[in-house]
Design a protein that fits this description.
Chain B: It comes from Tritonibacter scottomollicae. The complex is a heterodimer of chains A (263) and B (267). With 263 residues, chain A is an all-alpha fold. Chain A has one domain: Orthogonal Bundle (MetI-like fold). Chain A contains 12 helices and no strands. The longest helix of chain A has 41 residues. Chain A is globular and about 75 Å long. Chain B contains 12 helices and no strands. In chain B, helix 1 packs across helix 12, helix 3 packs across helix 9 and helix 7 crosses helix 9. Chain B has one domain: MetI-like fold. The chains are: A mainly alpha (263), B mainly alpha (267). At the A-B interface, helix 1, helix 2, helix 4, helix 5 and helix 7 of A face helix 1, helix 3, helix 4, helix 5 and helix 7 of B.
Chain lengths: 263, 267
Amino acid sequence: MMRLITRHVPLAVTLLACAFLLIPIIQSILAGLTVNYFRGLSSGLTLKWIVQVWELYSDSIFLSIWLALTCLAATLVIGVPAAYVLARNPGRITRVLEEFISLPLAIPGLALALALLQLYGTVQGFRTSWTFILVGHVLYTLPFMVRSVLSVLAAIDLRTLEEGAASLGAGPARRFVDVVVPNAMPGILAGALTVVTLSIGEFNLTWMLHTPYLKTLPVGLADSYASMRLEVASAYTLVFFVMIVPLLMAMQWASARAQRIMQ
Amino acid sequence: MTQRHFISLCLLPLAIFTLAFLAIPLGRLILASGESEAGWGIYLQILQTPRYLSTLGQTVVVSLAVTVAALAISTTAGLYLVRNHFPGRNVLLSILTLPLAFPGVVVGFMIILLGGRQGLVNQLLPGYWVFAYSIIGLFLGYLYFSIPRVLLTVMAAAEKIDPALEEAARTLGASPWRIVTDVLLPALAPALIAAGAIAFATAMGAFGTAFTLATDIDVLPMVIYTEFTLSANIAMASALSVVLGLVTWAMLLIARSFSGGAVAAGG
């Protein structure tokens, strides 16, 4: 009896949780590929919904990829040097600074978007351009880049490495490029994959910041859930899965690798 | 270039970006909440208006229920997966972490596929079973994105528990149930508090899922959204955002003080 509870109940809970998460994913894959979802698979398989999604929403897919890449560039330029300074000078001030730039992890995207809209909503050229959405994405993903790089840099003896390079005559910029960045690479890679994955899936900020002419993939998804037939919405979701799942797996692999290197 | 100059140069992009797009906008948001006729009394008004009060109550109740359910499910599954290695284990683990990258709207759509008008449950069971747009659907949606986040925190902590503790308890004659309550759960307590705080904060602020499912339900993010877009009640939308932000921020501070890492919040 006891053995039954300690062994089989946890297994059952695990399997039920998996079923709860996986069944709707399978449903959406099937629905996106069947002629008529309500009649079931017997109505036949088709790619016409995928084609229709491509015709209707390919712009949103390209916009999301473009935003993810520019967001990555911005978080690299802002985040990597900042993480270096934070790692180099551990102390109270840097701790507060790290806490402050991590606020977008804690404050819901909706609130951040309202804040941005109230300050910049009337700046015409900016409000209606894609860079306004980019600002939201950088705001949300930057803490992930900083923390990922910071945790790797904090685990190595940065000071000794830099002193070695300095005694050989390398200046601060040279040390940053030739010593700090190569050592931080596992963290930069993990951070970069996290930034791209999160940027492509970002909805909460983007919904408030987007304009009718600038729809990202998740904004387009919300649009299709509200106004398209279930098959089209499912096919669009399927396209999203095909993009996001490999990214998620690469991100988990890179994060695990960075952790291994730190130990 | 001296070391000091280089350090300043390194911080410059961050300083400009954070000031322009985080510090000043947040300051503006707080000021905007006091710009209605009520002034700063608007925060008192939240507590005096039944609609806002019931919204706050409802959001807290749903978030608490999700937190408890996610902790129960993910701790059970997480402990099982840490302690048992069997073929297919990694597949189960992958499935359980898959929703981490799903935006809230996609999670909402998953619940519609389960409990909507054309949903699985309505097709399989006789009678009319549509729960996607009710509070149950919202609960399930929040649970959907909470399970993976809690699971990862619990598993990371469970892997660090010394197996010798459990063996010692067993040789001293403790029953499996007592091992769980007296050895494993106390060892996991900090991780459970941290994971619970993250789950609660994420559920409180979840906009995407609520946007897809809560067309008739008043939860805080939806009320903020409608106050801002439909009623153009900027001050109230700002005040409610400040309240929401303070609650989620406090929860994540609790989480951070109990365990180092933080898992992305973004339902």
